[in-house]
Design goal:
Elements: H1 2-10, H2 12-29, E1 45-51, H3 57-72, E2 78-86, E3 89-96, H4 102-114, E4 127-131, E5 135-143, H5 148-163, E6 170-174, E7 179-185, H6 187-192, H7 197-208, E8 211-218, E9 221-227, H8 234-238, E10 241-244, E11 250-252, H9 253-256, E12 257-263, E13 269-272, E14 275-284, H10 290-303, E15 311-317, H11 318-347, H12 350-373, H13 380-388, H14 395-409, H15 414-440, H16 448-454, H17 456-479, H18 488-521, H19 523-543, E16 555-564, H20 571-593, H21 596-599, E17 606-614, E18 631-639, H22 647-658, E19 666-672, E20 680-685, H23 689-704, E21 709-714, E22 719-727, H24 729-733, H25 738-749, E23 752-759, E24 762-770, H26 778-782, E25 785-787, E26 793-795, H27 796-799, E27 800-808, E28 811-814, E29 817-826, H28 833-851, E30 856-859, H29 861-892, H30 896-904, H31 907-919, H32 925-954, H33 959-989, H34 1000-1043, H35 1053-1063, H36 1075-1095
Parallel strand pairs: 7-24
Antiparallel strand pairs: 1-3, 1-4, 2-3, 2-28, 5-14, 5-15, 6-14, 7-12, 8-9, 10-11, 13-14, 13-17, 16-18, 16-19, 17-18, 20-29, 20-30, 21-29, 22-27, 23-24, 25-26, 28-29
Helix pairs in contact: 1-15, 1-17, 2-12, 2-17, 10-11, 11-12, 11-13, 11-33, 12-14, 12-17, 13-17, 14-15, 14-17, 14-33, 15-17, 15-29, 15-32, 19-31, 19-34, 20-22, 23-28, 29-30, 30-32, 30-34, 31-34, 32-33, 32-34, 33-34, 35-36
Length: about 1100
């Protein structure tokens, strides 16, 4: 190491070439690095979907979901298995264990499901897919006073035009049902013509069937032969012949069926400020650049040719968020760099400060060059990592630069000072960087999507830290090795730095050293004070005064109400809720207009637009969303100054304004940019469904009664009316079987898929079913035509009995056990999830489990993710601390001083927690990232400090003198590293924009943690060092006293003197009767006691 430092210092051209290589590589890599709002995160989850049309949840559970679960339960690499049985659909999700390839697990599942032969007739083939996150870039809203058909056609035209752009590969249309051609047959026509739906389908299928006839090989070429032609429109289907009489009369499909070329019965619709609307979602695919995709959309908007009265506007733009966050982070980075350089210039010369600060862009651009090589991108998280280490990255350069400057002041020439100064601190700097790398390492191994999201932070941070080691030991000494006389501004800078350093020396002599001496005198009191502060911070967390919300909610300029209704809820109820939410939103707008706080703000808050949706598909991933039809959402676009009235407060007012939605399955009023997950999420287990329902209702009621708990949801609360059709004896005598009756009922009410044809790039099914007028009421079911075994027709009521009952609309399994999910949101200003769960366990869960040994419960959702996350973080961090201790043991050659450094790490929490408490922030996941960075700073400062003290001890200084001189000598670099780290994140900590809110807790942790770490390094660690020496001396004297032989009158004077020193402070009388020996013993005791007083 020392040789390489000297070589680079003497070969400045090579050092400059290395610097220019890093700078140019970074500048060239930036335009070619993928840009995205958030990094691509694999879910490591597989979805299995099996459709069983019109089957009840209980039937789906027993006949579909249970066989599928049994087939995949023990697949290698699978872990958490969750299934949902709904009307007509079984959906199963399997999480893949970390370390296993999702593709391999997927193939195993497909193989097992292909061999599954016990699924019921009528169930579709299982569809298996890996669930992935979809990266939406832009959402466009197309609105106008158009019919649904016109809106669909115009929306598809816009979609095709967008896809024609080179930068756009994926566009989805939302808020419209799927296309469908329906052939509706009335009950009267079935009786009149003595037809059945099965017969009509069979006859029509013969006409639409296309049969390949081989190849005609002629002299002019090979021609493909095909029999049959696909109807191209509704009129062609009407002309299909379904029966011919003996007289030759033809009965066409149009004679008995009404052909409707429209949409499916799943109602989906949207309105923008009352006008019909559809959304077009533009997604980024693969390595596409988010800015390129958004730019292509904006170019299209500038050229779009739309009919009069039709509007096309951007509703959400992730590229704008990315640009705003990027600009925010780069702006804060530049401000931090300027502040940091000014701080350096104050304490160092301007020349030295400039060369030290130059290391920042060198390391940053070097890391930019490494990003694409490491498979990473420029995104909000990676840019955030650059700011995180902005202040830390110069710590090494500050220490090296200050050491070289110190050598210059000792009289060495430029080259000698550069080599000697860098070599003097190379060893502690190398170990300091290595310990910081180990401090960041736990973030590489965190579980789940959140862990994958954060993985870029340690990658960027560790890359920059390694480059900072290269820059500070190889490049910086070469720049500081020149002996050029200072002139002009440089001379004034040196004169200012000299005056400041002289003033600092005087302050050290007059103020700092006396303070340190008093701290060493009262070292035990000081240690107790620091321990007390640590206990106080722990009490803040445990008492709830300082809340921990790991997965924080980031608010934006949209306020949403999302309501999920039970399956089976009628379309009129859904439409009414949409209207009521719109009405309450308008009432809220009037309330805000008259609100004192909101109206008096610099930019009053306004609701600019209201976007209402009936039938909302969740598009965060490619997972199938069976409950989309029963979900409604109303979104408010707000503008103005939200500092006086935050969006979350607007959401709360809206919730209060709207009131309770009694028949809803779940209700969420929020303003979060991210998907909102409940704070409380528990799974209850019991094999009996009725008991499980009762347990879930009790848990939901207990949560609803607690203060600060709102929006309680229970997935078993939703009930569905089921009509059981049981075959009568009359039906059995007529030759009917239950399976035949069920098939005829399904054909009449669900329909028969007669054909499929393509419309552009989408399939349109052709469905044959009973007319809507004949399939609305229970009486329509009773009068439904049923064909008997002899071909005669009768009504269903004549051969079967009908009975109604209530049953759950959905049945869930968790790892093979029947489960119910109860969830709720918590107002963090009133209580905390931990307090709510403690109360719920004491009041309900523990007694419930004790009363029924078949019952069980576990936390799930966000709570389980937090628990798993903290567990992995704790284990990884303990391993990292063990590795740091191992490195420190190598450096110091013993266990004592490494233990002192390790003992200082927990006190970095004190500053971080106190900063959150004073500024009113909750501790979040990003706070923990800042705390980990603080632990690296604490280790670095104390490592360098103890290395300096050890050097003084090696030169013969006493411990106390070495401590005082070592702390005095390291005061400037320790203060500089703390000030520069604080300055690096201070602009971000003071930022008020929406885009910075989720990053501020990290800045608070790092800024306040580093400030407190300065006190830890300059006061606590020196005191602990002296305390450890006291303990060491005490133990040594106790062992020596225990091993020493009994006093004897034959002892020499020297032996009596040493015995007096050894027994001083332990009590006991003079053991010698001889006057000379007694005097020697007393002299030894007094000398020891006086030495202790002097040491104090």
């Amino acid at each position: 190491m020392n040789r390489s430092i000297a070589w680079f210092a003497r070969n400045g051209a090579v050092a400059n070439l290395l610097m220019m290589t890093l700078l140019l590589a970074g500048l060239l890599a930036i335009p070619h690095t993928r840009q995205e709002t958030l990094p691509n995160v694999p879910l490591d989850r597989i979805g299995i979907y099996v459709a069983y049309p019109q089957a009840t949840p209980e039937t789906v559970e027993s006949l579909v979901c249970t066989p599928v679960e049994t087939a995949v339960d023990d697949v290698e690499g699978g872990t958490e298995l969750i299934s949902e049985s709904r009307e007509g659909l079984c959906s199963v999700q399997l999480d893949v264990l970390e370390g296993h390839d999702t593709g391999d697990v997927l193939e195993q599942i497909r193989t097992r499901l292909d061999a599954l032969d016990n699924l019921p007739k009528g169930a579709a083939r299982p569809r298996v897919q890996e669930l992935i996150v979809r990266n939406r870039v832009v959402r466009l809203l197309l609105s106008g006073s158009l019919s649904r058909t016109d809106l669909y056609q115009l929306g598809n035209r816009v979609r095709r035009q967008l896809l024609n752009r080179d930068a756009i590969s994926s566009v989805d249309i939302e808020n419209l049902p799927e296309r469908e051609m329906a052939l509706l047959v009335s009950r009267d026509d079935l009786y009149r013509y003595e037809l059945t739906l099965d017969g009509i389908a069979a006859a029509a299928s013969q006409s639409v069937q296309r049969i390949a006839g081989g190849v005609l090989r002629s002299d002019k070429g090979d021609w493909l032969l095909q029999t049959g032609e696909q109807p191209g429109d509704a009129r062609a289907y009407e002309q299909l012949v379904i029966r011919q009489s003996e007289q030759g009369d033809l009965l066409s499909l149009g004679d008995v069926a009404q052909v409707q070329d429209g949409f499916s019965r799943d109602t989906q619709a949207a309105w923008l400020d009352g006008k019909p609307a559809v959304a077009l979602d533009v997604y980024r695919v693969g390595d596409q650049n988010v800015l390129d995709v958004a730019g292509a959309v904006r170019d299209y908007l500038a050229e779009a040719d739309l009919p009069p009265g039709v509007g096309l506007q951007v509703w959400s733009d992730d590229a704008r968020q990315f640009s705003e966050r990027s600009n925010l982070l780069w702006r804060n980075a530049l401000q931090g760099l300027v502040l940091l350089t000014l701080m350096l210039a104050i304490f160092l010369t301007l020349r030295l400060a400039g060369w030290v600060a130059l290391g920042i862009p060198v390391c940053m651009l070097g890391a930019c060059a490494m990003l694409p090589l490491l498979g990473e991108s420029f995104n909000t998280i990676s840019l955030f990592a650059f700011i995180l280490v902005l202040g830390i990255v110069v710590d090494d350069a500050v220490i090296v630069g200050e050491s070289i400057d110190h050598q210059r002041r000792q009289g060495l020439t430029g080259g000698q000072a550069a080599i000697s100064g860098a070599q003097r601190v190379a060893k502690p700097i190398l170990f300091a960087v290595m310990t910081t790398l180990f401090a960041f390492a736990p973030l590489l191994f965190l579980p789940g999507p959140e862990g994958a999201l954060m993985r870029v932070i340690p990658i960027v941070s560790m890359t920059i830290l390694l480059l900072s080691l290269v820059e500070s030991l190889w490049i910086l000494p070469a720049h500081l090795s020149h002996d050029r006389p200072a002139r002009g501004l440089w001379l004034k800078s040196e004169q200012l730095a000299t005056r400041l350093n002289d003033g600092l020396e005087r302050w050290l002599d007059q103020r700092a050293r006396p303070i340190l001496q008093r701290c060493l005198h009262w070292r035990y009191v000081l240690v107790v004070v620091f321990v007390g502060l640590f206990v106080f911070c722990c009490a803040l967390v445990n008492s709830g005064w300082l809340t921990m919300v790991l997965f924080s909610r980031v608010e934006g300029d949209r306020v949403m109400a999302e309501v999920v209704f039970p399956q089976g809820t009628g379309d009129p109820r859904l439409a009414r809720e949409v209207r009521e939410l719109e009405d309450s939103a308008q009432a809220l707008a009037r309330q805000l207009a008259g609100d004192g706080e909101a109206a008096q703000a610099e930019a009053p808050i306004h609701i600019d637009a209201v976007f209402a949706e009936q039938g909302v598909r969740q598009k965060t991933s490619n997972a199938r969303d069976p409950g989309a039809r029963y979900r409604v959402r109303v979104t408010l676009a707000i503008s103005g100054d939200t500092s006086a009235l935050p969006p979350r407060e607007i959401a709360r007012r809206w919730r209060d304004q709207h009131g309770v939605i009694a028949d809803a399955l779940s209700v969420k009023f929020h303003a979060s940019l991210m998907q909102v997950k409940p704070d409380i999420h528990i799974n209850l287990f019991h094999p009996d469904l009725t008991t499980l329902q009762r347990m879930s209702e009790q848990a939901a009621l207990a949560l609803a009664r607690m203060d600060g708990v709102h929006e309680v949801a229970n997935n078993l609360h939703a009930q569905r009316t089921i009509v059981d059709i049981n075959l009568r004896e009359e039906g059995e005598r007529a030759g009917l079987r239950a399976e035949q009756v069920g098939a005829q009922v399904r054909n009449a009410f669900h329909g028969i898929e007669l054909d499929r044809w393509f419309e552009q790039d989408r399939e349109v099914p052709v469905m044959l079913r009973l007319a809507q007028a004949d399939s609305r009421q229970i009486t329509d079911l009773e009068r439904m035509p049923v064909q008997l075994a002899d071909g005669e027709m009768t009504v269903l009521a004549a051969v079967a009995s009908l009975s109604r009952r209530q049953a759950p609309a959905m049945i869930s399994h968790y790892d093979g056990r029947r489960s119910a999910t109860v969830s709720a949101f918590v107002d963090e200003h009133t209580t905390s999830p931990a307090l709510v769960m403690a109360e719920l366990r004491k009041a309900l869960l523990d007694p419930m489990m004790a009363a029924d040994d078949k019952a069980g419960w576990t936390v799930a959702g966000k709570q389980a993710a937090i628990k798993d996350f903290l567990s992995h973080l704790s284990i990884s961090y303990l391993i990292a601390l063990a590795a740091i201790f191992f490195l420190l043991t190598i450096l110091f050659g013993g266990y004592g001083q490494p233990l002192l450094v390790m003992a200082a790490i927990p006190f970095g929490l004190v500053g971080a927690f106190m900063g959150h408490f004073l500024l009113g922030y909750s501790v979040t996941l990003w706070s923990l990232v800042g705390i980990i960075a603080v632990s690296g700073v604490v280790v670095n400062d104390n490592l360098v400090l103890l290395d300096a003290i050890n050097d003084l001890r090696d030169k013969g200084a006493s411990l106390r003198d070495a401590v005082i001189r070592g702390v005095s000598g390291r005061l400037r670099p320790v203060m500089l590293t703390s000030i520069t780290t604080f300055a690096g994140v201070a602009p971000l900590m003071l930022e008020t924009s929406v885009q910075a809110r989720f990053l501020i807790p990290m800045a608070v942790s790092l800024a306040f943690g580093v400030l407190f770490a300065t006190l830890v390094s300059l006061l606590l660690v020196p005191s602990l060092l002296v305390v450890s020496n006291d303990v060491k001396g005490l133990v040594t004297r106790w062992l020596a006293r225990w091993r020493a032989p009994q006093a004897s009158e034959q002892d020499t004077v020297e032996m009596a003197y040493e015995r007096g020193r050894l027994y001083a402070g332990w009590g006991g009388a003079n053991p010698y009767h001889d006057a000379v020996l007694g005097s020697a013993w007393e002299a030894g005791r007094q000398d020891y006691m006086q030495g202790q007083v002097g040491a104090q």
